[in-house]
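We modelled each protein-ligand pair independently. The example shown here corresponds to the nicotinic acid entry; the chain sequence is given first, followed by the ligand as SMILES.
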Amino acid sequence: MSIDTAAGLAAQARQQQLTKPPGSLGRLETLAVWLADRLGQPVPPRLKPAIAVFAADHGVAAEGVSAFPPEVTGQMVANFVAGGAAISVLAAEHGAALTVVDVGVAHPIPDVPQRRAQLISRPVRAGTRNLLYEPALRPEECDAAWQIGAAVATRLAEDGHTLLIGGEMGIANTTAAAALVCAYTGAVPEEIVGRGTGVDEGAYGRKIAVVNAALARVRAGGDPGPRGWLAEVGGLEIAALAGFYSAAAAAGVPVLLDGFISTAAALAAMRSAPQVGRWLLAGHVSAETGHRRALAALGLVPLLDLELRLGEASGAAVALPLLQAALALHRGMATFAEAGVAAGAVP
Ligand SMILES: Cc1cc2ncn([C@H]3O[C@H](COP(=O)(O)O)[C@@H](O)[C@H]3O)c2cc1C
Ligand SMILES: O=C(O)c1cccnc1
């Protein structure tokens, strides 16, 4: 967590003067300093968070790698917009704007009479091709999804949001994310592939075999590079998230990462442009097998471990109040001088 701006250094000095033993608020202190540094303000105001959930389908669902059918992707998009999904509830609870973006849902999205979140419809194609047999996306499709995610982040930054959270919905996307994490970290599928929505032993075995075969298929043609891997074994919502994180970093807005799939997208963004890493925080570590390894590859330590395995940005949303608390303490606590409390010996 490098702190290198004047604002960050001033925030660090302020933390030493607040009425508490230095360091006693642990990671809440380093979080406040990190945010001050990234926001360029020694004492930042309350964060104005925005959440964007990107949704798309996956051709690899045909291999029986999820416990749920692909129709659920579109049905959940309707649920996000109607206010009934976990992320709908958490966004409302924590005062975060929620935007849902269809970048490639293959099945119908049911009508929602009363919309509680904005729905942006930008399908690049009706889901990916099956990554087991062929590139999931053509490079231009992957770029189009990336650009859509980037445009959403740029708009949210322009609207004054000071923290961006990305989420995803896409049946079978833990298979695509696992393949990406293996490609970017060099880990083997057995270390990374998890149970996703809760697949049984048979589907779990198939998932590992599918990821192994997809990696072998791509590697036979040489290393395609970070964007090449994203097109070969990724997904439209994953590419959109990678673009979203890249544009947030370019706009100078901090990002709070969610779970396994979000982290795979962040790895794609950082492997494409290492400076993106400076803007990332990890909200939680998911129960999905490979998440810890993916976070470690980004050099991130998660704030929470609640054994969540949902996605949708839910883990990041649950961690959001910790960031607000860190900043409230940083802003609101009295200094030793202000409170007339004797400071300890300077170490
Ligand atoms: C009702 C429902 C709501 C969800 N919200 C997120 N996911 C999560 O599960 C999916 C990934 O798991 P897999 O690779 O096993 O399909 C993604 O859509 C992810 O966001 C959901 C899944 C379901 C079924
Ligand atoms: O960690 C995640 O993002 C996750 C894990 C399981 C299923 N869906 C998402």
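The longest strand covers residues 49-56.
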